[in-house]
């Protein structure tokens, strides 16, 4: 706070959002408004090798998830003193956005995120758990809302929890063949995170540790963003439309996805009363155990492209 009680904006170091490449850093500054409430400025990249427009002319909704993830980590490190070498685990993340507000044309790339932190718990004087509730606006227009639940674990405790799994840190992972990029809404094979499965509604997670956006550093498990992208790609393939626009998403993680065992991605379309939307449930399983569950809802193909009249339905 400044001497007049107003929050002052600050620069965002890459280590606060766990990103090394400046092109991948979404928040541009933050201001404390009052206790446990903050305003974060962000900028969505006009062009990015991974977060490219979808459904013709919309910002990738997964940018919303990444904005929520980076914002939550930023506040934890910058305002609650979480050391930058702590492990940061998202156990749940959700968002709901107005599809029309995702338009690439006609609006700036600047996004404002209003953040409220709650359900804070500490251990040994260090933040352990927190929940963030976020409202996103763009050019003063409502964009969407989101939530995240996260846990912070010290580097020492994390090594103890992971045990022998730490031996897989940085170990090469065989790259399995990818499905055709156009089937999962991608243009480049390097961005495909699914390989063929044993039936039409099943795929094997494809792990490309050389992908600099999805694997920003050597890791001992599969990052959550890879699993979220796998859910989106599997939903796209299930619906059979590159115009699949996940305007509503809710994901929960139940355990780490390991690098050395096949992770199977399975989908089903969830019947709904609204014919103008399609909801897909995605399950990730490994060694017979659930790794994550995700539901994604998109406007129908025609409305996803046209963007007509769905703002109040999906954003409300």
TrEMBL record:
<dbReference type="InterPro" id="IPR029069">
    <property type="entry name" value="HotDog_dom_sf"/>
</dbReference>
<dbReference type="Pfam" id="PF03756">
    <property type="entry name" value="AfsA"/>
</dbReference>
<dbReference type="InterPro" id="IPR005509">
    <property type="entry name" value="AfsA_hotdog_dom"/>
</dbReference>
<feature type="domain" description="A-factor biosynthesis hotdog">
    <location>
        <begin position="183"/>
        <end position="297"/>
    </location>
</feature>
<dbReference type="InterPro" id="IPR047757">
    <property type="entry name" value="AfsA-like"/>
</dbReference>
<protein>
    <submittedName>
        <fullName>ScbA/BarX family gamma-butyrolactone biosynthesis protein</fullName>
    </submittedName>
</protein>
<feature type="domain" description="A-factor biosynthesis hotdog">
    <location>
        <begin position="16"/>
        <end position="152"/>
    </location>
</feature>
């Amino acid at each position: 706070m400044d001497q007049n009680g107003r929050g002052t904006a600050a620069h965002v170091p890459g280590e606060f959002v766990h990103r090394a490449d400046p092109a991948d850093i979404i928040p541009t500054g933050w201001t404390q408004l009052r206790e446990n409430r903050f305003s974060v400025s962000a900028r969505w990249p006009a062009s990015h090798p991974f977060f490219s427009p979808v459904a013709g002319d919309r910002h990738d909704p997964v940018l919303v998830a990444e904005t929520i993830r980076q914002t939550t980590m930023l506040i934890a490190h910058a305002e609650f003193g979480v050391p930058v070498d702590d492990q940061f685990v998202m156990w749940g993340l959700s968002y709901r956005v107005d599809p029309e507000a995702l338009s690439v044309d006609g609006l700036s790339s600047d996004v404002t995120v209003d953040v409220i932190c709650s359900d804070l718990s500490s251990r040994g004087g260090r933040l352990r758990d927190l929940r963030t509730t976020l409202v996103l606006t763009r050019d003063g227009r409502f964009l969407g809302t989101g939530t995240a639940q996260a846990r912070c674990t010290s580097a020492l405790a994390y090594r103890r929890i992971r045990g022998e799994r730490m031996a897989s840190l940085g170990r090469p992972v065989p790259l399995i063949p990818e499905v055709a990029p156009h089937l999962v809404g991608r243009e480049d094979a390097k961005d495909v995170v699914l390989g063929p499965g044993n039936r039409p509604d099943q795929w094997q997670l494809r792990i490309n540790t050389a992908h600099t956006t999805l694997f920003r550093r050597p890791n001992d498990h599969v990052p959550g963003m890879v699993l979220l992208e796998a859910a989106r790609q599997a939903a796209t393939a299930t619906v059979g439309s590159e115009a699949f626009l996940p305007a509503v998403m809710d994901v929960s993680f139940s355990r780490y996805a390991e690098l050395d065992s096949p992770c199977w991605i399975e989908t089903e379309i969830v019947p709904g009363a609204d014919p103008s939307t399609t909801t897909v449930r995605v399950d990730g399983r490994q060694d017979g155990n659930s790794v994550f569950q995700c539901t994604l809802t998109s406007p129908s193909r025609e409305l996803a492209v046209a963007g007509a009249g769905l703002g109040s339905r999906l954003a409300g």
